[in-house]
Design goal:
The protein has twelve helices and no strands. The protein has 291 residues and is an all-alpha fold. The protein is elongated, with a radius of gyration of 22 Å.
């Protein structure tokens, strides 16, 4: 079974799990709402000081903030910021980390040592401090936050890709491709990588949840996406000053943020359990065949 076929089979099995299916449905809802927010009657920047800190109502479902802006509108548009950061960070981390892991695992020798020592240096740096330092150099913007979170995720992709290469390289189908004249690039990217997609997809989902949390943490600390761009972390930072006057200001965006992260985490855990079960079944079948 090819990597793509295995990924499709995993998705179908994932939907049979109630928690994972509900989490996926919630993420689809959040993504669709963020994607089509421009077609909704929501304006995250419209201010009305006279309507500041209003409680939830039929007109403003989540209430209003200190400037009279609709909190629901800012939550919806804040989803754009969080999801864009998550997917952008995963793309950067995979784009750099996967080739590094493939080269390190395939060749071994000094290339493996040099590349993995660089990865170890990134691993030694706390993600939040490294992201803050990088933002200090690049400047405070959504692009800087995206790059900072993405660079912090490179080591995880590199280590998983390296482990998969080392596990698949001695197998017969890789040896056959090498025997037919396949070059290193072809073997790494056309033979091994498609068969290593499942754990990399799981890591992408896990990193997406980490990226959303890290972006929110940076905004909460005041070094993330600059206002007036809506951001869940920025709303939590500002809303904590009005917990007594308008508790829903910080609580409702916090609930959406928590549910989003939990949904990614639930899907990642479910996929990990399914992959582990498949590997266990494969080992049992191999042991049974040898008998």
């Amino acid at each position: 079974m090819t990597g793509l076929a295995a990924a499709g089979r995993l998705l179908r099995r994932l939907l049979t799990r109630r928690g994972a299916a509900l989490s996926l449905a919630f993420l689809v809802l959040v993504a669709c709402t963020a994607l089509f927010a421009g077609f909704l009657p929501l304006d995250p920047l419209r201010q009305s000081i006279a309507d500041s800190l209003k409680p939830p109502s039929l007109e403003n479902w989540f209430g209003t903030d200190e400037l009279g802006r609709d909190i629901l509108a800012r939550v919806v548009y804040g989803a754009r910021t969080s999801l864009a950061t998550a997917f952008g960070a995963v793309f950067i981390a995979a784009l750099v980390g996967v080739p590094v892991g493939l080269v390190a695992g395939f060749y071994g020798d000094w290339r493996d040592s040099v590349l993995m020592r660089c990865i170890d240096v990134l691993l030694a740096l706390p993600n939040i401090l490294f992201a803050m330092a990088l933002i200090a150099v690049l400047g405070r913007s959504q692009g800087a936050a995206l790059v900072a979170v993405g660079v912090a995720g490179i080591p995880s992709f590199a280590r998983i890709a390296r482990a998969q290469v080392m596990a698949l390289r001695p197998l017969d189908f890789v040896t056959a491709v090498r025997g037919f004249g396949g070059g290193p690039g072809y073997i790494m990217f056309r033979t091994i990588l498609p068969n290593a997609l499942s754990p990399l997809v799981v890591q992408a989902i896990v990193l997406a949840s980490i990226a959303i949390l890290l972006e929110a943490a940076l905004s909460f600390l005041g070094v993330g996406v600059p206002p007036p761009t809506p951001s869940w972390g920025e709303m939590l930072r500002t809303g904590k000053s009005y917990l007594y006057e308008a508790p829903t200001y910080a609580v409702l965006p916090g609930i959406v943020l928590t549910l989003t992260i939990l949904s990614f985490d639930t899907i990642g855990r479910a996929l990990t359990a399914l992959i582990d079960r498949d590997e266990t079944d494969a080992v049992r079948e191999t042991a049974g065949g040898r008998r």
